[in-house]
Amino acid sequence: MALKFHFTPADTPRGDETNPHAKATTEVADTVQALREAFGPAVQDHLTYAGEHTVYIAAEQIVAVCRYLKEDLGYSYLVDLGGVDRFVEDGRFEVYYNLVNVAGRQRIRLKVRVEEDAATVPSVTGIFKAADWNERECFDMLGITFAGHPDLRRMYMPEDFAYYPQRKEFPLLGIPGSLPLPPQTPEGSLTMDPYAAAHGQKPVKSYEEPRSSK
Amino acid sequence: MDPNSGYLTTTVDAVVNWARSNSLMPMPMGLACCAIEMMAFAGPKYDVARFGSEAMRFSPRQADLMIVAGWCSYKMAHAIRRVWDQMADPKWCIAMGACASSGGMHRCYGVVQGIDNFLPVDVYIPGCPPRPDAVIHALMDIQEKIRNQYSIKQDYAFGPQRASPKDTAPLMVTSSGIQQAEPDVLRDHSVEQP
Ligand code: SF4
Predict the structure, then answer these.
(1) pLDDT for B17-65, tens place per residue?
(2) B188 in a domain, yes or no?
(3) Which one-letter DSSP state was computed for residue A191?
(4) Residues of chain A with confidence (pLDDT) below 50
(5) Confidence of residue B145 (pLDDT cuts 50, 70, 90)
(6) Is B118 part of the contact surface with chain A (CB cutoff 8 Å)?
(7) How does residue B189 score in pLDDT terms, banded at 50, 70 and 90?
(8) Domains contained in chain A, CATH given
(9) Which range is least confidently modeled, A151-160, B114-123, B178-187?
């Protein structure tokens, strides 16, 4: 049986007169129209779901689109940026950008799709400084490169880690030996087995301490 | 001194173990949500001061009980092991909560599946998070362990590792190295036992 997904009907935007708190903030047809006029084919598609507008942008135009949204349309606040592994043949990776126009009370979501063998997106750190760590996280977890990022290092995983753990093919429990545990005595070698205790290698409580060199 | 005032005899072990077990200074290795319960354990309501352990020591040099509270990532494991190595012997370790004991619900690539893979754990506390009473119970277990220890005979630097606190026959230096003596080694065999 197919799963049904319901979103609450209250998600449809209501006018100010029925509920002063429910503003039509996520239906931004005028912004979408302005983007289409300014960028033409670089705006690939747009989607309305649950009263929210999502715009698909060609990767090479994302910086220009963000600058236009920020400087001309007032979307000055980057709320979130992240990556998705769609695990499909075409356009496997997706980067999303949630922007807010604080003064105009509007929200918009941009999406960029890239192929697995060319997973590079231009960095928007030159426009939104807040994108710095989000892009680093996205690089760490999915291996999407952000061209022009000032400091594209791993965010969470150790810097010599060789994999991208949120790619769908990465095993949930990791790859044994890729993340060493500390040595079991101060001068021992790293513990390469992540289940050392289960395999009978329990750390001992007392060991011969190194003698002072006197 | 008045010779009629009375006196008390004891062993060094009894005094040392009494002092040690009632003044454990925890090193609070708070890593996640369990650390909040560890704070409650030290706070006025559960009042671990009754057991002499209210003085949390944020310097490993002054601590002798490490409470690992929370899930531990592979990256953090190296820092924890370093702190543990800086604590002076004798020292004890509590794995607090499901995550520290076994990885808990974080069954994933980034979280160590039990800190006993790199630390010698004395007491494991189940629960997610354990109640502060359970942490107090773990502390009492550690105290029990200390009270059963022979603190003077155990040579932490050069003695062999003991299997259990009951395994406390004296150590002897023989031609083939340090050995555990027979239990009656101190008896004078030239004297007829009654
Ligand atoms: S055992 Fe539960 S409360 Fe404790 S660190 Fe793990 S998830 Fe948090």
Answers:
(1) 889 999 999 999 999 999 999 999 999 999 999 999 989 989 999 999 9
(2) no
(3) B
(4) 15-16, 19-22
(5) confident
(6) yes
(7) low
(8) 17-147 (3.30.460.80), 178-214 (no CATH)
(9) B178-187
Q: Hey, whose CA ends up nearest to atom 8 of ligand 1?
A: B33
Residue A41: cis peptide before it, omega within 30 degrees of 0: no
Task: Say yes or no: B192 contacts chain A, CB-CB below 8 A.
Answer: no
**Centroid of ligand 1 to alpha carbon of A136 (angstroms):** 27
CATH of the domain at B111: 3.40.50.12280
Asked if the C-beta of B89 comes within 8 angstroms of chain A's C-beta atoms, the answer is yes
Residues on A contacting B at a C-beta cutoff of 8 Å: 156-158, 165, 170-175, 179-184, 186, 191, 193-197, 202-206, 208-209
Range of the domain at B140: 13-147
pLDDT given at position B158? 47
pLDDT digits (tens, 9 = 90+) for A5-37: 555 555 555 544 554 444 577 788 899 999 999
> With an 8 Å Cβ cutoff, is B164 touching chain A?
no
CB-nearest to A158 from B75, B89, B107 is: B75
> Do B17 and B146 contact (CB within 8 A), yes or no?
yes
Chain A partners of B163 at a C-beta cutoff of 8 Å?
none
> Is residue B5 in a domain?
no
Ligand 1 contacts CB of residue B132 (under 6 A): no
Query: Which among A194, A55, A81 has a CA at the least distance from the CA of A142?
Result: A81
Residue by residue, DSSP assigns chain B as --TTS------HHHHHHHHHHTS--EEEEE-STHHHHHHHHHSTTT-GGGGT-----SSGGG-SEEEEES--BHHHHHHHHHHHHHSPSS-EEEEEHHHHHH-TT--STTB-S-GGGTS--SEEE-SSSPPHHHHHHHHHHHHHHHHT--TTT--TTTSPPPSSTT--PPEEEETTEEEEPPTTTTS-TTSPP-
ipTM, interface predicted TM-score of the complex = 0.77
